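Convert to structure. Protein one:
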Amino acid sequence: MALSTLKGVNAVAFARKLSDAAKKPADLIPWQTSLSFDPSRDSDSTVTKDGNVNTQSSVSTDLEIEFINNTSAIADAFYDSLLDGDKMEFWIVHKDRKNADGKYFSWYVQASVSEDSNDNDADDNSTRDVTFSVDGTPKRGWTALTEQQSSDVDYVFRGLDKVAGTGLKETNGGKAWVKETDGGVNGAPSVTSTAV
């Protein structure tokens, strides 16, 4: 597999109240503008006659997300976490890193909101900057997205016909562009001639 870069725009955050784990899938946090994820481990060194001896502390993680303030249930859940101590589940999903099973590389943490800053300038949208206190060590893995989560993250091409069905099973009279096969004139693959 070729080496590729991961773009910040493709790292998106999903969250859910931990108490809702058996009731509903995680929600995409709408209109994210910034996501900061910073696991770290402090170390200390003691000088001995035989050389330095290092000790390490547990991993601590800083997690912060900024988004345009909105009326979504997950935005309100952050207030519940701060005011009532509700524990949250949080995923950072990298849309540009997918495995052979079609699952996306993700980080998972359990956290509580420790600060929720709200800016309300007269000439701009209201914004929120939410900081989380993360419990334990973040976990890495691969996650699938539900049809709703996939459509929340990105939308598909639609034709002019009426829409039937939902999510990936939707029909709408259109066909999405496929770069490898649809180049050239009128959707026909472009042909390059070679001299004989």
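Protein two, convert as well:
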Amino acid sequence: MSLANDVQEVARVIDSLEEFGAANGIPAEQSLRFGLALDELITNIISYGLAGRSDGIITLAIEHGGGVLRAELADNGPPFDPLAADAAPPVGDIETREVGGLGLTLVKSFMDRLDYRRADGFNRLTMEMKVKAA
């Protein structure tokens, strides 16, 4: 699917993922975790990587097979490897710590495999989650 450079697209992705999960027998909890990871990544692409750009391109492909839920998320923003980014949880109590820092930690904790590459002017992140029997 192709996504507009608009955070409202996240709702469409989540709805599509829920339908896909139900049709493929993926447990709701796993669909939810996968959806939360996609929400974080897509929101970051739109808010940071493609902010203010009218030529932003985002694509998402999702598949299920061999006991694995897999997605490839691609964007034409500046090179950014989320796997190399600091994903240490923020330090301090909620009132005094800086905003942010939990999203990539969440994504990394939910996925069984993540792979980033830059190809043909696009960031390409492949995500995999092993699907447990319902």
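Residues 28-49 form the longest helix (22 residues). The chain is about 35% helix and 25% strand.
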